[in-house]
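Now for our specimen.

. . .
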Amino acid sequence: MALLDRLPRHLFTQRGWGMLGAGAAALAAAYIMGRRDLLTLSVLLLVLPLVSLAGIRLVKPRFRVYREFNPSPVETSAPTTVRLAVSRTGNGSGRATMEERLPPRFGESPAFRFPSRSATGGTSRYEYHLRSARRGQFRIGPVTAEFTDPFGLSLHRQAIDDGDILTVTPAAVVLPLTGLAGARGNDGVTATRIRANPSDDDVMTREYRHGDPMRRVHWAATARHGALMVRQEESVTTPEATIILDHRFPAFSSGSTAVSAGLSAQDGPAMATSGTFEWAVVAAMSISAHLSERNYGLRLLDVRGEPAFLHSPSAPDPEAEEYSGTSGLQSIAESLAAIQLTAPHHQHRDGRLPDAAPRGFSLPGLSGHRNRASQDSGPPPFDDRLMDKLSAHRMRGPLIAVLGRISPEEALSLAPAAGYGTNAFAIVVADRPADFDPVLEALRQGGWRAVAVPPSVPVASAWGQFDQDVELPAPAVEVRRGAGVVR
């Protein structure tokens, strides 16, 4: 048995190897003893495993695989159930051992027998659970099937599908209420007056229409006009919030600091990210959920006025800027799933950085003078393009900026943008927030409410700073929507 265990496992079964060994022994005995009957037996023992091996590769069983994730996409640290349905589509019979290939972060790959004991209609169904603490897109599968010939002598293994992509979105944390909208109110509702009469004296009244309630009759205006007049109706409009998300590589890493890979090469395409950027992603998701629950329409831009998810490989619509309702929030979550740091110039649709080394992401090519040259080659942040986008939605709601390391000069460029929103909030996330006092001062002089925080501070605590001037606490846990309390 010890010798059989050392033999290749994907050619013959132990029975097949045993038959080949017996055939070789019979052949040697026939040669020594000169027995023709032993020669015939040895040929039979040697040829039968080889014929079965050739047959199983020429006549392969065919399978169809259906894979479903529930929920899909799934938030970080939340479980998703994977349901597999496998059926045989070609001729053949017999049993097979199957295995679902998983990225290493999900642990050991599940294995199962085909057909299952509960198979119905030729279809076997299986179920298992996955959970990821990191956001991203992961290929689940393919399913590999290992089957034998009818005699159980030879083995063959093959992938029977291409696998499917599981999208893991960042989980939003619960944010405290703040004075977000100024005159618009915290509930996301704005009352606007519709002018029916051009007269300045009657801007709040209009003529009576059939069906108007009598309690709305404006008797003074009725006496002046000699016709029944009613108080002007109020209509409810949906406020809009604009979120500026910084995802520049220099803003979230220093020239000498390596950026950690969000995914290993074995898990799938590597992502360029860092601790500060992961904090910014969670903040953007949390703010979007917080505003969406209060009926805000959302608009997400980057620091150059382009759509925030233009370079996110997981974005359903990369060129979209405006989102509303539950479907819009879901689209934001999916877009944030695989967003990563991008170089100021030479950006790729799949999010790859120029001259990036996927393993480890030390990215020496983006440090030093090459990093500075790359910054100079791209359009400047917070320029007229961004200002034009903001002015097009002037005073329609709050303006929120989630930023990385920005310079005082960039802060001065961004400062006037506060005038385009009913309120303006800026969060600067950096490892050493004390270094950004000049940046905060420049933003505050322009009308922003600005704070600088390290990534160790929970997003909810940073958000709460906009309504209170106390020192930031640093608790170890955050309450996440739909995922309970996680570290």
Residues 36-58 form the longest helix (23 residues). The chain is about 25% helix and 20% strand.
